[in-house]
Q: What sequence folds into this?
């Protein structure tokens, strides 16, 4: 498959975002000369007219659909309707318009939030329909899961090559550190760094800390997506993860240690924990297209913290 991307026109929705930046870098490293990133200022992918115009303007061979409206537990609780509608409409319309244009392939990115709340650990793709998702992010998870239904239905009726990947939460340099919409790792890094710089003797964390999560370094996730784009053409969903599980309590303690925060960690048990456990079975990705995550978790955290601290210092310096 050497040179697979070389002469193809690849649209990466969300290509200007966190994960998208790593995917487009990976495409360039693979020799892709036509990477097309529809920016939100030019195309509202929730609007059918803009989706049609985007296809007419870019004429892609392959679409990698990364664009999503996402956030942590708080954002999901505040915007369940918005998260459901926008994520559903973007994906459904991109797949339909891609099918009408007979594009070569569409890669749809799902979410671990699509899994049932009490999925046996590790999560296997075959368990995806054995229950309802965890309530705090069910609208988002179900909207994404409908893209799997659509992909499989279109493959059966139209022989349309749409694949569906299920990644865990990403983390790494260039992550979103906005408290209103960030996920748990950047949110905790920011809390610890803020506390150190502000001289605060404690940080507050949601829930009990007893639940577990799996994370994947963003560069590894991008590599998995690109390997699947090159090599996988199956109907079945595929997990993209690290196979590594850590409790939120252990995560907070690790981030506190790596940032140098030595104060008290306070838990607000009135806030939701979310799903009890999350860890993926990653064997299908290895078997289907040879993907394995490479980055050690603590090393990935150090790189993320270093990037955030340096970026923060530059921002402060520029504002003086």
A:
């Amino acid at each position: 498959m050497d040179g697979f991307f070389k002469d193809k026109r690849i649209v990466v929705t969300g290509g200007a975002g966190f994960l998208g930046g790593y995917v487009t870098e990976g495409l360039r490293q693979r020799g892709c000369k036509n990477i097309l990133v529809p920016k939100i200022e030019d195309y509202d992918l929730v609007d059918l007219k803009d989706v049609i115009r985007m296809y007419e303007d870019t004429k892609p061979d392959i679409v990698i659909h990364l664009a999503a409206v996402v956030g942590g537990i708080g954002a999901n609780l505040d915007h369940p309707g918005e998260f459901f509608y926008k994520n559903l409409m973007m994906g459904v319309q991109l797949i339909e318009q891609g099918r009408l244009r007979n594009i070569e392939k569409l890669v749809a990115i799902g979410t671990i939030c699509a899994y049932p709340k009490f999925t046996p650990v590790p999560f296997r793709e075959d368990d995806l329909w054995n229950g309802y998702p965890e309530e705090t992010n069910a609208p988002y998870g179900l909207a994404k899961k409908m893209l799997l239904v659509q992909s499989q239905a279109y493959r059966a009726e139209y022989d349309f090559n749409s694949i569906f990947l299920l990644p865990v939460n990403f983390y790494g340099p260039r992550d979103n550190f906005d408290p209103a919409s960030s996920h748990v790792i950047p949110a905790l890094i920011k809390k610890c760094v803020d506390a150190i710089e502000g001289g605060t003797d404690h940080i507050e964390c949601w829930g009990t800390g007893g639940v577990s999560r799996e994370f994947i370094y963003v560069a590894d996730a991008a590599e998995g997506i690109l390997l699947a784009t090159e090599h996988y053409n199956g109907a079945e969903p595929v997990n993209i993860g690290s196979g590594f599980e850590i409790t939120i309590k252990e995560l907070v303690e690790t981030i506190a240690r790596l940032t140098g925060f030595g104060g008290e960690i306070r838990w607000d048990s009135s806030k939701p924990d979310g799903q009890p456990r999350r860890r993926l079975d990653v064997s299908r990705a290895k078997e289907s297209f040879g993907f394995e995550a490479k980055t050690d978790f603590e090393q990935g955290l150090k790189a993320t913290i270093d990037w955030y601290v340096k970026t923060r210092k530059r921002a402060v310096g520029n504002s003086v």
Summary: The mean pLDDT is 95.
